[in-house]
Design a protein that fits this description.
Low-confidence stretches: none
Helix content: 25-40%
Number of strands: 6
Shape: globular
Strand order of the largest sheet: 2-1-3-4-5-6
Largest sheet: 6 strands, mixed
Oligomer: single chain
CATH class: Alpha Beta
Number of domains: 1
Strand content: 15-25%
Order of helices and strands: EHEHEHEHEE
Structural class: alpha/beta
Amino acid sequence: MSHFLLDENLPRSSARVLRDAGYDAVDVRDVGLRGHSDAEVFAYAQASGATLITADKGFANVRAYAAHPHAGLIVVRLPNEVPTAEVNRVLLHALIDLQGRDLAGLLIIVQAGRTRIRRPPRVR
């Protein structure tokens, strides 16, 4: 089962919603990472073997983060006006669709009604 670390740019309730659905999920605010840099959050996720779930588009930059070995990156791309309950619903639906997959090395972009998976670039 995957372990998830949720970034602080997602609703505070998201980790609880995922835990209630049976996922192992923790919010960065609960592990003392509130206000820390993206690099620190990424490093913590990797050290703990967690798939990072974030709304920060910077994590979708394949040269900055996705090119490095990681336990998985999920970037939630929804408009800011989307209500918290809808953000949680879309995220939970995406995780249900991804259930059973090995997320290591994957960059997953979650949008309303669509989940895209980018595999790591091949080393030549």
